[in-house]
């Protein structure tokens, strides 16, 4: 049965007190508490550093067996190498995530490319075969030149999700290229009607057999976390 995994980008935000985190919950217990209300998080930590086995073990201990961690690919892959000659570091990076994968707690790995990175089909074709098929991947392109049918076809052949990122600057078309969907909701606000429409769309995806990973933007207030919790309730 298809499942919804909903949460936010990151969880370590003291400003979420007291509307999401109770006043008496210390920062070191944020993840443990977060996981009692939401069932997934998009991890920014892995974008800037390679996680240690000890760090990942702590995350696993703090959360239940149903909780999924979607990890951002390291910036060296997306912003420095930009997929070029990146086979060795890709293997190294994915090896660091092995504790999550082995525990069946690894969600999709998100490749978030910089807004200045323009369409380069040969580079994409060279890189995609390097990605293992036992891990889910999502690609977030932030330059509009990548949003074309050829890219969609390449992603679909590898069962890689086009990240459905929407913000006030760019909205990626809702093209489904994998057997799961990865959404990043980055707009400043989502009113009742928008959230109701989102819930309806998620139900349709689940009914079609696609797992859905939905992450709201992290902000200086807990609205994203509360909206993710509302979404989980509305489709349960």
Please specify the SSE layout and strand pairing:
Layout: E1 4-8, H1 30-37, E2 40-43, H2 45-48, H3 53-62, E3 68-72, H4 75-80, H5 87-96, H6 98-102, E4 106-112, H7 121-127, E5 137-140, H8 149-157, E6 161-162, E7 164-166, E8 180-185, H9 192-207, E9 211-216, H10 223-235
Parallel strand pairs: 1-9, 2-3, 3-4, 4-5, 5-6, 7-8, 8-9
Describe this structure in words.
By secondary structure, the chain is α/β, with parallel strands linked by helices. The protein has one domain (4-235): Protein of unknown function UPF0759 (TIM Barrel, Alpha-Beta Barrel). It has 10 helices and 9 strands. The strands form 2 sheets. It has a 5-stranded parallel sheet with strand order 2-3-4-5-6. The protein has a 4-stranded parallel sheet with strand order 1-9-8-7, with helices on one face. Helix 8 links the parallel strand 5 (137-140) and strand 6. Helix 9 (192-207) packs across helix 10. The longest helix has 16 residues, at 192-207. It starts with a strand and ends with a helix.
Keywords:
236 residues; alpha/beta; TIM Barrel; 5-stranded parallel β-sheet; 4-stranded parallel β-sheet; 10 helices; 9 strands; 37% helix; globular
Structural class of the secondary structure composition? alpha/beta
Gross CATH architecture: Alpha-Beta Barrel
- Describe the sheet with the most strands: 5 strands, parallel
Topology as H/E string? EHEHHEHHHEHEHEEEHEH
Which strands sit side by side, in order, in the main sheet?
2-3-4-5-6
Count of individual domains: 1
CA-based gyration radius: 17 Å
- CATH superfamily grouping: Protein of unknown function UPF0759
- Tally the beta strands: 9
Strand content: 15-25%
Q: In oligomeric terms, what are we looking at? A: single chain
CATH class: Alpha Beta
Average pLDDT metric: 96
What is the third-level CATH name, the topology? TIM Barrel
What best-fitting shape do the alpha-carbon axes yield?
A: globular
Low-pLDDT segments, ≥5 res: none
First-residue to last-residue Cα separation: 12 Å
């Amino acid at each position: 049965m298809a499942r919804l995994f909903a949460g936010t980008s990151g969880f370590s935000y003291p400003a979420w007190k007291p509307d999401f985190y109770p006043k008496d919950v210390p920062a070191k217990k944020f993840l443990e508490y977060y996981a009692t209300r939401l069932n997934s998080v998009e991890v920014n930590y892995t974008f800037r550093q390679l996680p240690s086995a000890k760090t990942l073990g702590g995350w696993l201990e703090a959360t239940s067996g149903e909780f999924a961690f979607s990890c951002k690919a390291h910036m060296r892959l997306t912003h420095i190498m930009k997929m070029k000659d990146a086979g060795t570091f890709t293997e190294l990076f994915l090896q660091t995530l092995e504790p999550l994968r082995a525990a069946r707690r690894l969600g999709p790995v998100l490749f978030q490319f910089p807004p200045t990175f323009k369409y380069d089909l040969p580079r994409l074709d060279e890189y995609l075969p390097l990605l293992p098929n036992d891990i889910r991947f999502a690609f977030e392109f932030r330059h509009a030149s990548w949003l074309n049918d050829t890219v969609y076809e390449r992603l679909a052949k590898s069962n890689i999700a086009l990240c459905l990122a929407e913000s006030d600057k760019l909205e990626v078309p809702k093209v489904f290229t994998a057997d799961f969907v990865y959404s990043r909701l980055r707009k400043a606000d989502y009113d009742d009607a928008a959230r109701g429409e989102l819930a309806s769309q998620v139900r349709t995806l689940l009914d079609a057999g696609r797992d859905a990973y939905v992450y709201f933007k992290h902000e200086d207030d807990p609205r994203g976390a509360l909206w993710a919790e509302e979404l989980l309730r509305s489709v349960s």
